[in-house]
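Milestone M4 deliverable, item 7.
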Amino acid sequence: MAAAAGPRIRSGNARRTGLILGIALVLLGLCFKASVRGDGIGYYAYLPTVAGNHSLDMRPTFDRFLNAGVPAWSPNLHIRLPNGLTANYKQVGSAVMAAPFYLATELALVVTPQTEDPTLGAPYQLAFTAASLFYALLALFLLCRFGRDLFGRGSARLAVLAVTFATPLVAYIFFEPSYSHTFSVAALTVFALFLYKTTDSRARWQWFALGVVGGIMVITHVQEILFLALIPAEAIWLISRRRWSLRLLPGYGLLALGGLVGILPQLLDDQLIYGRWLPPSAPNIHFDFLHPQLLPLLFSTHHGWLSWSPFVLVALLGLPLVVRRLGWFAIALIAIGIGEVFLNASLSDWWGGLGFGSRRLTDQTLLLTLGYAAVFEWLRARNLARLVVAGVVAGVLWTILLLANFYYIIRTDVQPTWHDFLNG
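Output delivered:
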């Protein structure tokens, strides 16, 4: 009987895997927009400017997009600097991560008779958005593996499904892949999980690699610097367990060296374009730490995190269970999440501009995945698996309806009334 059950289980797994792959291909075919637009222009512009035009001046690249009628916030694409160059206030990390895809496309086109525009050419835009998709899938794969080890395969898979399709992340995987969010999620996921997995024994090359990943993470979006707090949090935990020693100091040195390598592209960009070593902020954005818009950030119809993605509450309910399982690592992630909420609430554009949901808080994908998996495991252990599935389905359906409302009805950067928000 056991021998006969084995093939049936494998056959069932194969069918489920085939079904999932089929659904994924349909979603990609119907929803994935392999084009650069909006904020994505700034993140992408480094590649055609440097690799295609062999220049540091973003103006020709920006002008090509604007003249082609590509949707964008044009005021930030026309700022001339005293040195004659055009400012680009988007960080360079996404372009660094996508560079292998862009350069591979450039090499592949060399052997073809067809000539493609390195700025607007469809193959080059596809290369950038395909890189975005690759890093999103990498992050989700790592999250599924990590969640499986902690909470079981079924709970982990449902958690990844929920964090993908019941949070704003779905919009930046499928509809706006040229934005930086998928690159940031991948970089911080790799950094955080690599740090946690190597806490007990970290080789010298791992210290250096951790620094490189951390540096790249920071230059995808400046707020990711908060995740570097995992390093002192780990040190405090080691000290509390009397496991920290001076022998770790060379490792911290290698970490710092790797971090310098990781942020080097941004340092060079800032020095060559702006004549400074730190990136300038966009002229229309500033912080007001004394008056953070915490309630609007969470509950407003203007891209509030919980109003646009109410299923996030389920993940937040699971955080005590995550702390019980992961201890210091979970506490540090929660502290970073709170810090990021406060940081974003203090921004003059706390709603994040024109975009789906609270897009800057997609950085909390790791924490939300763990929260979802913990809740789902707790419910499944009490024979409430159907409630889990029903909850995920409800969260996904809400997001689908809101996506349709946003892209076909709202369409602009406005704060709809609750009536318009709920009824479209």
